[in-house]
Design goal:
Elements (H helix, E strand, L loop, with lengths): L3 E10 L2 E11 L4 E6 L5 H8 L7 E6 L2 E2 L5 H4 L2 E4 L11 H8 L8 H10 L13 H13 L5 E5 L7 H15 L5 E5 L3 H7 L2 E6 L2 E7 H7 E7 L13 E7 L2 E7 L3 H8 L5 E6 L2 H10 L8 E2 L15
Parallel strand pairs: 3-8, 3-9, 6-7, 7-8, 10-15
Antiparallel strand pairs: 1-2, 1-4, 4-5, 9-10, 11-13, 11-14, 12-13
Helix pairs in contact: 4-5, 5-6
InterPro entries: AAA+_ATPase, ABC_transporter-like_ATP-bd, ABC_Transporter_VariousFunc, P-loop_NTPase
GO molecular function: ATP binding; ATP hydrolysis activity
Keywords: ATP-binding, Nucleotide-binding, Transport
């Protein structure tokens, strides 16, 4: 059983498909980073997964149950942290804990205490008086206390400063390391995604164009610089090139890989030199999504098992 799967999940706003026939299959124990520029459809996809928005076509299943018909006892095994961390502002932190806990048959009060004490949160402090970082920390405590099997987070570190964001991620990493925990999260902070995500999805205009191991995507996108004397020629197309541009006397290519055939094409232009640069995830994402949308190559690799073993050396 896959903890999270979708089949041709689609949502229209007017005549525009904001989520367009998305197929997802996230195995148990996987940390999945969902990426995309503003308006790409990430939040709408997450809201459909949580049953907050009804799809126009397709279906989604969480922990083996259709989202539209999910029993309450299954929902208790799923946690959700919404963008902006909405909370009952008139409550104190302790009142929020006391209010939420009875809704769950399983509640790890010791874990809540550990998070509250680690972040030095004021239990008697009103939620409306907390900083954005403190609200994120309270949301994390409330979300993980039921020890969910599946955790879904919609841009949880948005608006947090660097130190608070790092502390939040450190706590999240510890939670990830608990056996069998599956996490789907969206983020605009690509460094965070690169650090903790096993797989990534990249949405472009509602279409899931990338669904593969993080390392595979990052290592596939290359910046190839061809140096010329004077005005560089145009790229004629082909050769796995996502985009091309002139920078002074250089021709810069964003390519998918750079094998012998691609090098031969580049050398046919008779450049003075060819330089191939590996990119980090942020640069690879920017360059990939900057290309013409209709010609973007697909990066889709399927998981061969319904359980995911995290690679050695991943935090």
């Amino acid at each position: 059983m896959l903890p999270l799967a979708t089949t041709r999940l689609t949502k229209f706003y007017g005549n525009r498909p904001v989520v367009n026939s998305v197929n997802l299959a996230i195995p148990s124990g996987c940390v999945y980073g969902l990426l995309g520029r503003n308006g790409a459809g990430k939040s709408t996809l997450i809201k459909m997964l949580m049953g907050m928005v009804q799809p126009d076509a397709g279906e989604a299943t969480l922990l083996g149950h259709n989202v539209a018909e999910m029993p309450a006892e299954v929902r208790q095994r799923i946690a959700y942290i919404a963008e902006g961390h909405p909370l009952y502002d008139w409550m104190t932190i302790q009142q929020a804990i006391d209010f939420v806990a009875p809704f769950y048959t399983r509640w790890n009060g010791r874990l809540v205490d550990q998070i509250i004490n680690h972040f030095e949160l004021p239990r008697r402090g009103k939620l409306r008086r907390l900083s954005n970082g403190q609200r994120a920390q309270v949301s994390l405590a409330l979300a993980v206390a039921p020890e969910p099997e599946l955790l879904i987070l919609d841009d949880p570190t948005l608006g947090l400063d660097t130190v608070v964001r790092r502390d939040f991620l450190e706590s999240l990493i510890q939670i990830i390391q608990r056996k069998g925990r599956t996490i789907l999260f969206s983020s605009h902070i690509l460094g965070d995604v690169e650090r903790i995500a096993d797989r990534i999805g990249v949405m472009v205009d509602g279409v899931l164009r990338v669904d593969c191991p993080t390392e595979h995507f990052r290592e596939s996108i290359k910046l190839v610089t061809l140096e010329f004397r004077g005005v560089p020629p145009d790229w004629s197309g082909g050769g796995g090139v996502v985009s091309s541009r002139h920078v002074g006397s250089n021709l810069e290519l964003i390519t998918v890989g750079f094998d012998a055939e691609q090098r031969e094409l580049a050398e046919s232009l008779e450049p003075l030199a060819i330089d191939v640069l590996d990119l980090n995830l942020e640069d690879a994402f920017i360059e990939y999504t900057r290309g013409p949308k209709r010609s973007l190559p697909l990066f889709v690799t399927e998981s061969t098992d319904d359980s995911y073993a995290r690679p050695q050396g991943v935090a």
